[in-house]
Amino acid sequence: MSYQLPALDYDLKALEPHLSSEILELHHGKHHAAYVAGANTTLEKLADARQGKDFGKINQLSKDLAFHLSGHVLHALFWKNLGPNGGGDPGGALAEQINRDFGSIDGFREQFTAAAMGIQGSGWAALSWEPVAGQLLVHQVYDHQTNFGQGTTPILVLDMWEHAFYLQYRNVKADWVKGYWNIVNWQDVADRLARVSKGPAAV
Fold this sequence. Notes:
Layout: H1 21-51, H2 58-81, H3 92-102, H4 105-117, E1 123-130, E2 135-142, E3 153-159, H5 166-169, H6 173-180, H7 186-196
Antiparallel strand pairs: 1-2, 1-3
């Protein structure tokens, strides 16, 4: 079954002024769509390689699939993490877990912001559930698919690739991160935590 570009849950202008409609249209309709197409094309090439027993291509095709598929998954999560009625602080069980694992909401936000600002090149900041210890962790994702613990599940992500902000914020990444906190859909993050925290441990 091929991967599909998910529709947005809100209008292109719904996240303004923190994220412009121009960026959202290009980011979703062009960049995200390209990762979807790349994942599907790579799956076709893998099928051809298996059929022709041309396994010399496996290493590169596996890397290509990891890149495109991870790009698709992270972007699909990113759009759900955002909302026109976002911002403020989380509440309920999510706030309790964040306070337990980071000391405070402000402490979490500062660490997440530092992770985003500290990315060298292209990548993401992520808040993920780690099932072995049963805790939330903040980490960086370089490009789309590296530098996180196996078994962790992201529940909140921030795209720090230049295409996510440059048309609006130019090279002032800090302003993009400040804007992001005003459109975070905490209900989506809370729902994701509720689901993943009930799952089995990775080991």
